[in-house]
């Protein structure tokens, strides 16, 4: 898939900002009792300016937050419209993903409160989707703190991003780095699920959480390690890690094919 032009990117940013500015000056109501409109507007503008990098997350929302980051990064206008509708009505549709009155977001929105940086547009969009997708297997019905299972990344991601399919790369393999790098070179979006303990300098492997991040670039570092550029917790990060640790850490690699234009 060809990369988007800089001119098209600037046009999308302008459209998104116009949408938000028009919303900001209107008299509107919200179903979110603890999120002031000014905070929502400001955080949405930050998400627009950073093409989704400013999207934040909270406990057990890393998988959904990764999908929301990709959504904002892929189509900031559609993301902004979706966020505004959710903020106002607790209902919204984007691509093949729909939140309706039956999902009961309005009731949840009356009581949910910000948690430090997890506020504004991040709480509205990430929190709402996590709340809607909670099932009995997520252990936290009625909250936004359910687990994000790998199958949810595929099911929700396909509908939310409007992609043809979500593939998984079999791991671990010696050529995993090369396969993932090839996907990124094709401008396909990649989320990885990894064991956080395997990235630590000290401590035992496989003793703590699994975590989702959005991979932006994978290459060899000058010290012959694997260099990862990735998005996590509202910012882009870079980490050098030995190849064997990288392979041991991987639980799954998700590749989103034919992303929205």
SSE layout and pairings?
Layout lengths: L5 H20 L11 H13 L12 H13 L1 H14 L2 E3 L2 E3 L5 H5 L10 H14 L16 H12 L3 E5 L6 H10 L3 E7 L14 E11 L5 E7 L2 E7 L1 H7 E8 L4
Helix pairs in contact: 1-2, 1-4, 2-4, 2-6, 3-4, 3-7, 4-6
**Tally of contiguous helical segments:** 9
Rounded mean pLDDT score: 89
- Coarse structural class: alpha+beta
Taking all Cα atoms into account, the compactness measure Rg is 18 Å
Q: Low-confidence stretches at least 5 residues in length (pLDDT < 50)?
A: 1-6
**Helical content class:** 40-55%
Terminal-residue CA separation: 9 Å
**Based on the structure, what is the oligomeric state of the protein chains?**
single chain
Element-by-element helix/strand order: HHHHEEHHHEHEEEEHE
Largest sheet geometry: 6 strands, antiparallel
Shape: globular
Q: Strand order across the biggest sheet?
A: 3-8-4-5-6-7
Number of strands: 8
Total number of domains: 2
Indicate the proportion of strand residues. 15-25%
Quick structural gist:
The chain is 41% helix and 20% strand. With 261 residues, it is of the alpha+beta class. A hairpin with a 5-residue loop joins strand 5 and strand 6 (226-232).
